[in-house]
């Protein structure tokens, strides 16, 4: 029986993650997954299914500004949701939701602004959400360092906390960020390539032809 047939939410978002999982093997059995912008819950289902049997362990934590009920199918006790604004939620409050408070093996960001129809505005808001996801995943000091700040600024930003405390993504972990295609997303490449073993762009086959959505796939946090 196909793992994904019959009961998953029939949404483009769900099909997109299925394709990315099949192609990149982002989620491993027993892994720990943070899903930013988890409404309506399709990615929670796909993530949980790829954790393997319940005895394998693992956890999926979804965060969204909307209150999201954990789907009754293809989700189990390893899935939990939090209603909060990712843009203002302290990373320490997210870390305590991870196994042994040691962070996550995967961070997924499907966050997207309410589309206004003004291309430049929508792209800028999408980039802002994506940068927040990146900041939470790898830490502010890492983002600042690869964003062409001075060495003095980097030392000042990172002096108060060790890199592994500042970031929510574990070493070797994977990150997926949804963005809207624009000039604004070029910066993500510059930041992510030095931080990850591999960083690439993907436009899943399930993406509608009229959509500007594109995904940044980052594998193996250094």
UniProtKB/TrEMBL annotation:
Pfam families the record matches: FtsJ
Molecular function terms from GO: rRNA (uridine-2'-O-)-methyltransferase activity
Ribosomal RNA methyltransferase FtsJ domain mapped to chain residues: 17-220
Gene3D superfamilies the UniProt entry points to: Vaccinia Virus protein VP39
Keyword set, alphabetical order: Methyltransferase, rRNA processing, S-adenosyl-L-methionine, Transferase
PANTHER family to which the protein is assigned, alphabetical: RIBOSOMAL RNA METHYLTRANSFERASE, RRNA METHYLTRANSFERASE 2, MITOCHONDRIAL
Name of the molecule in the record: rRNA methyltransferase 2, mitochondrial
Species this protein is from: Perilla frutescens var. hirtella (Perilla citriodora)
């Amino acid at each position: 029986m196909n793992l994904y047939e019959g009961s998953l939410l029939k949404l483009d978002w769900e099909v997109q993650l299925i394709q990315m999982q099949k192609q990149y093997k982002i989620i491993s059995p027993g892994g720990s997954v943070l899903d930013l912008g988890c409404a309506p819950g399709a990615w929670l289902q796909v993530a949980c299914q790829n954790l393997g049997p319940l005895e394998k362990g693992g956890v999926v934590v979804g965060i969204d500004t909307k209150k999201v009920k954990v789907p009754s199918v293809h989700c189990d006790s390893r899935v939990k949701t939090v209603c909060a604004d990712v843009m203002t939620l302290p990373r320490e409050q997210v870390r305590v939701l991870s196994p042994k408070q040691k962070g996550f093996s995967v961070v997924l960001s499907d966050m997207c602004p309410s589309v206004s129809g003004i291309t430049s505005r929508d792209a800028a808001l999408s980039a802002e959400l994506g940068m927040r996801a990146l900041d939470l995943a790898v830490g502010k000091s890492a983002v600042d360092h690869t964003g062409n700040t001075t060495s003095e600024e980097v030392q000042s930003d990172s002096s108060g906390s060790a890199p592994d405390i500042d970031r929510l993504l574990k070493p070797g972990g994977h990150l997926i960020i949804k963005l809207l295609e624009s000039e604004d997303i070029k910066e993500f490449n510059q930041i992510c390539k030095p931080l990850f073993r591999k960083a690439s762009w993907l436009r899943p086959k399930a993406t509608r032809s009229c959509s500007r959505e594109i995904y940044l796939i980052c594998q193996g946090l250094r």
